[in-house]
């Protein structure tokens, strides 16, 4: 019987774990590209629909709000149906609003499609679930962080590529109004293609697909029969909710920056749309290595110490993120602002990787529920940041307040420390018959 992978062989797709690894980060990349494709075009869309600051804040909130609910749902769905079918379904359903936003004719219709697009952000939970069931404890932190980081880079790629894609459309002879709309159809089509590839070439876990395993009476690692049982079990664990807060303070900030960075550089520093997209894109592209670095360092810290070494690392990363965010909020010039953004962005992405390096050890009986609830915390953080900006009415002030809140929330990481008994339980394999 095939077992979990004890190493990551990047240039191989010969085993189920490595096929899942590569295809899950690719699917995640496509989803994040689609999720944030609108953000760098907002300066143009703002002009077309005559959007106010409050309306832009509403759009940013809508972009992440529904993801909270969908993330809570897809984790248990992975336990029940398996990550293969869950991811395929999310890609196909998510493509509908992604393509639909290109046909929006008013602020209201744009807002509704933007709300629907937010569902694709739940792809993160499925990616983390799939790598968690495919890789052994000694490398699972690195596998989770690398897959998530490379997929996350789709957000940065969208920031840089979408203005260029719109520019190419305009150069081809279409109007700017049609250019941004045509550009936004591209990520929707990519999602449909990715759905077919994912369904065809992945399987749920090293042993096979959940449906086949249940039919054969083979036990499945996960939350009882999946679904609601997994969610209930995860919801009773206090560490889940502490990491829910910390993830809101790192990934939530990451999403918030993706949504406001381009328009902040245009309004605050006078950047062009293309320059602002490239500056904002550099933040997202840090995910290519920074999140993986956070997971790798977490794995190394655990090997030299214990499970609580992962917790301490997360605390340090979040303190660095808070300090860097305060620097970014008070940067006096464009150059310093970009340097500050890259500095706190490094800590932010590493904190995200360090958080999900802990997830597989919180409660192995409810992996889907744990991954879903903590993942939803990221979007709760982003929504809270959106409401804070709407209330303050000033992006720079919002960034300063968020810097303080991130530093304070780092205390939740310390509170999530494991007792000796909990560490012993976390190191034991868990096989529960479905």
From TrEMBL:
Q: What InterPro entries does its record include?
A: MFS, MFS_dom, MFS_trans_sf, NO3_transporter
Topology in the lipid bilayer = Multi-pass membrane protein
Q: Name one GO cellular component term.
A: membrane
**What are the Major facilitator superfamily (MFS) profile domain coordinates in residue numbering?**
20-421
What subcellular compartments does it reside in? Membrane
UniProt keywords, alphabetically:
Membrane, Nitrate assimilation, Transmembrane, Transmembrane helix
**Biological process according to GO:** nitrate assimilation
Primary localization: membrane
Q: Which domain of life is it from?
A: Bacteria
Q: Does the keyword Aminoacyl-tRNA synthetase apply?
A: no
> Which chain regions cross the lipid bilayer?
20-42, 54-74, 86-104, 110-129, 150-172, 178-199, 240-265, 271-290, 311-329, 335-359, 366-387, 399-418
| GO MF annotations in UniProt | nitrate transmembrane transporter activity
Family per UniProt? Answer: Belongs to the major facilitator superfamily. Nitrate/nitrite porter (TC 2.A.1.8) family.
- Name under which the protein is recorded: MFS transporter
Organism field: Rugamonas fusca
Lineage, broadest ranks: Bacteria, Pseudomonadati, Pseudomonadota, Betaproteobacteria, Burkholderiales
